[in-house]
Design brief:
four-stranded antiparallel beta sheet; 8 helices; Pseudouridine synthase; about 25% strand; eight-stranded mixed beta sheet
């Protein structure tokens, strides 16, 4: 398996293939890329953890949390957040701080950070504790004739779903995280010393295999179809079941259920029959087998991920300064994946 090619998201097939491509530029200014975190729950008002909602500009999440912890005079290692937010954007999110005094936030001025509110809660905020994110983007330099085409593509994505690919940032600059994962997990090299780096590299390998399986379904015309043995996720409840019923094909097309793909790991639930054969073939193509997954079960136990997600409350409009887009996505979905479906290019 060519890991450099596996990390190149520009090679992945689109759902909306065909029609014109439009070049554009994103992130010319921080305000061109805005993200607002949608929490899974709100703080209760009681407990040892102080939940802080803040807006940051020009900082990644760990650095912003580190600065807030210093201002609160608490241990940053005890802080928590639900998801990482981009540095080159204006983003809004929550973080939690153990035994922090909210009075220390009054009148606080930190470069690149604006505190919006603070409230106590009983538990630490952990990765994944969010419902999703709301994006507002400006794409500069887009041909004005793009508007009706982009609107039609957005309508299709809202109806049929977006391929739930992992974006390029998952693999690091130049695919470095995936290259390092290959040296360790596929070539028998030394494991990274730090747990964070082990987890990062395992995640890159898992994500590349997921992308490969999803790309194959699009190429085979199976994006909105049921494969015998698929492990399906119910859209309304999130519950999962193995599908052997031909009638499930219609349920997929109606967006009642969605097939899931693997984040390979020793504790992952497997599909059956044809769907399992597809997954085992991809695993083998990457030089692994089910038994080999035990090598990284502590940092990558495995899970399932739906092959598609739907953007919510989509908005598309044109202005003198470019194309303006807004939409919501569930946790783990990438706005840049939506953009490449809409523009048929990879905006810089």
């Amino acid at each position: 398996m060519d890991l450099q090619a596996a990390a190149d998201v520009t090679l992945l097939p689109r759902l909306t293939e065909g029609g014109p491509a439009f070049e554009g530029r994103i992130r010319e200014r921080p305000e061109d890329f805005r993200v607002v975190e949608v929490p899974a729950y709100l703080p209760s008002g009681e407990g040892d953890h102080l939940f802080v909602r803040f807006e940051k500009t020009g900082l990644d999440t760990p650095e912003a949390v580190k600065r807030l912890a210093a201002a609160l005079e608490v241990d940053p290692r005890q802080a928590g957040w639900a998801g990482l937010k981009d540095r080159h954007a204006i983003t809004e999110q929550w973080a939690s701080f153990l035994f922090a005094d909210p009075a220390k936030l009054e009148g606080l001025e930190l470069e690149g950070i604006r505190v919006l509110e603070a409230k106590r809660h009983g538990n630490k905020l952990r990765t994944g504790h969010l419902a999703g994110n709301r994006f507002a983007l400006r794409v500069a330099g887009v041909d004005p004739e793009a508007l009706p085409v982009v609107e039609a593509r957005m309508e299709r994505l809202a109806r049929e779903g977006v391929p739930h690919y992992f974006g390029a940032q998952r693999f690091g600059r130049g695919g470095q995280n995936l290259t390092l994962a290959g040296r360790w997990l596929l070539e028998g090299g030394r494991a990274p010393r730090k747990p964070f780096h082990r987890k990062l590299q395992v995640s890159a390998l898992q994500s590349a295999m997921f992308n490969a399986l999803l790309a194959a379904r699009l190429r085979d015309g199976l994006f909105a179809a049921a494969v015998d043995g698929d492990l399906m996720q119910k859209e309304e409840t999130g519950g999962m079941f193995v599908s052997h019923d031909e009638a499930d094909d219609a349920r997929v097309k109606a967006f009642e259920i969605s097939p899931t793909g693997p984040m390979f790991g020793a504790k992952m639930r497997w599909p059956e029959t044809d769907a399992r054969a597809r997954e085992e073939a991809t695993l083998a193509a990457f030089g692994l087998d089910p038994e080999a997954l035990g090598r990284f079960k502590k940092v990558g136990p495995g899970t399932r991920r739906p092959y598609r997600v739907r953007p919510t409350e989509p908005e598309v409009r044109a202005a003198d300064d470019g194309l303006h887009l807004a939409f919501g996505l569930p946790s783990g979905a990438y706005a840049t994946v939506v953009l490449r479906e809409l523009l048929h290019s990879d905006p810089t």
